[in-house]
User: Which sequence fits this backbone?
């Protein structure tokens, strides 16, 4: 049985010292998994993501991370990630080792990881100072005479966690919207947790197989966690809580305020359900504010070839 | 007093520069408004491509980030980022891209990584994101930055994103950079081009009411001024109406 609770999935699949990727570009960022990792006090993690976003800002502030592997350290459209900056600039709560790439470099690392290639060639990093600071970005001669080309090593996390709209109980996972690099990050990993808004019947998956991003065989655990990606968003289910992203920019500037927030909204609740009740308590309009309304796709005919 | 804001000047100058362009890589903030203004004015067929993997967006509200869900509903294509970076960007299919940074030098090289030393930074900035490869592969780069001395520097603290490197265009091509690099810098006080021979940033147009000396005061090096330097046409009432009533009615980015 793959369907399990978030507590159980994290207890079983996240160990101190693991390298983990919780992917999702702006969308599908599984904050509920991060919060459970914080609650279970995992330590010395190497956290990988193209955009560490608020999710890793919170995990770093909570002291879960030893190292960050990334390509864009910002609160998108808002400003810096204050907790990560405090860790990097002042060692609060601990110094953080950084391994830095560009977005395309991280994409290629996941692709090499997913396909078990020894490295991936990429036309980037030319004239750039980053290869001088990250010795894992190297240049090789094209064996076919095309000159010098940059290469990056595979990224194979111990565990990848992705969020999606729906899966069946076996773990066949369907998503639509920004697909980012979630599929490759999952295929590159040793273990995969999928967190979904809905568990659906196998027949629903089979009615639209082109929408499946991961087959059951790749998935170790399925967690049903509605609103698990808040304050990020899930296309068609809820909007990005931009207000929260702006609020985090303000409160996370202060270390004590950040700790207070974590105490209240992460340690102070048992699970995502309690977190959501608390959100509604704070703002009656929470669900209505983030409801995206409806824009249905036109149905397609796969045909019946009996 | 001008009846438009510095941001509105930057948006308008950027939008006008998109006349005749077809495929633009959009950044969030001012470039997003500029691209949508261009679509409503000088470049109605402009295709907006976002780093998040979205083509042909028709955003119905101002997106806070390049991954905003409003970019997706009604778009013509949403693809994984492996596709976006490999098969569209690296394959040379993007004509113009907008970039910004914390520091720029006279050759249009950009720093968005650190202020101070990389290993012991005074300020840790976001890093490249996609900027490095966007600058290498887009056919042209337009840069949007506010003019100030600590941003327009003699020497970058870190080179995140290659511009014209040391100014030798041939060397840039030989190093394997296919794009033509920075063509335009839009600021709140002036716009700059790059000299076709030396690749040095050159003052080309002034915001109405701004003098060459005002611009020099915001640049750390001895500024090169085009002999044809002129004052820009201010934003028209129609451009301002589009920005204020349709593209950014709450004035989040443009006020």
Assistant:
């Amino acid at each position: 049985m793959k369907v399990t609770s978030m507590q159980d999935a994290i207890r079983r699949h996240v160990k101190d010292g693991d390298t983990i990727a919780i992917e999702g570009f702006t969308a599908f960022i599984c904050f509920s998994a991060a919060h459970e990792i914080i609650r279970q006090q995992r330590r010395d993690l190497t956290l990988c993501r193209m955009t560490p976003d608020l999710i890793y800002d919170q995990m770093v502030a909570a002291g879960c991370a030893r190292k960050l592997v990334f390509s864009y350290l910002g609160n998108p459209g808002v400003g810096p990630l204050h907790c990560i900056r405090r860790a990097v600039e002042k060692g609060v709560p601990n110094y953080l080792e950084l391994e830095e790439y560009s977005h395309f470099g991280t994409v290629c690392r996941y692709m090499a990881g997913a396909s078990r290639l020894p490295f991936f060639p990429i036309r980037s990093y030319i004239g750039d100072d980053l290869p001088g600071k990250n010795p894992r970005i190297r240049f090789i001669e094209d064996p076919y005479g095309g000159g010098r080309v940059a290469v990056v090593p595979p990224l194979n996390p111990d565990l990848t966690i992705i969020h999606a709209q729906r899966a069946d109980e076996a773990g066949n996972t369907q998503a639509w919207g920004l697909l980012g690099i979630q599929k490759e990050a999952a295929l590159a990993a040793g273990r995969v947790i999928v967190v979904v808004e809905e568990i659906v019947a196998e027949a629903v998956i089979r009615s639209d197989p082109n929408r499946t991003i991961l087959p059951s065989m790749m998935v170790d655990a399925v967690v049903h966690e509605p609103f698990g990606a808040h304050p990020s968003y899930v296309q068609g289910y809820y909007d990005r809580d931009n207000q929260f992203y702006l609020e985090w920019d303000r409160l996370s500037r202060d270390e004590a305020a950040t700790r207070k927030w974590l105490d209240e909204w992460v340690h102070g609740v048992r699970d995502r359900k309690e977190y959501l009740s608390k959100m509604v308590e704070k703002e009656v309009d929470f669900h209505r504010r983030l409801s995206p309304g409806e824009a249905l796709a036109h149905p397609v005919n796969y045909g019946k070839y009996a | 007093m001008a009846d438009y804001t510095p941001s509105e000047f930057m948006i308008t100058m950027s939008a006008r520069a998109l006349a005749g362009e077809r495929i633009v890589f959009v950044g969030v903030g001012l470039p997003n408004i500029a691209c949508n203004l261009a679509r409503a004015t000088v470049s109605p067929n402009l295709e907006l491509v976002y780093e998040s993997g979205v083509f042909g967006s028709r955003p119905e509200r101002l997106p806070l980030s390049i991954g905003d869900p409003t970019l997706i509903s009604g778009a013509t294509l949403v693809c994984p980022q492996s596709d976006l970076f490999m098969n569209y960007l690296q394959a040379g299919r993007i004509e113009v891209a907008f970039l910004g940074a914390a520091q720029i030098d006279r050759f249009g090289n950009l720093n968005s990584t650190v202020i101070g030393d990389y290993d012991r930074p005074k300020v840790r900035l976001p890093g490249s994101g996609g900027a490095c490869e966007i600058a290498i592969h887009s056919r042209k780069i337009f840069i949007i930055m506010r003019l100030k001395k600590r941003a327009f520097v003699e020497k970058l603290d870190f080179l995140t994103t290659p511009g014209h490197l040391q100014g030798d265009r041939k060397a840039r091509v030989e190093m394997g950079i296919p794009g033509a690099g920075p063509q335009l810098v839009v600021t709140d006080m002036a716009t700059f081009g790059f000299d076709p021979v030396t690749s040095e940033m050159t003052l080309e147009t002034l915001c109405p009411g701004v003098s060459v000396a005002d611009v020099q005061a915001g640049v750390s090096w001895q500024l090169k001024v085009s002999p044809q330097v002129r004052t820009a046409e201010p934003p028209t009432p129609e451009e301002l109406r589009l920005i204020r009533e349709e593209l950014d009615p709450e004035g989040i980015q443009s006020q």
Remarks:
- Chain B touches chain A through 55 residues (CB under 8 Å).
- Chain B has seven helices and 14 strands.
- The radius of gyration of chain B is 18 Å.
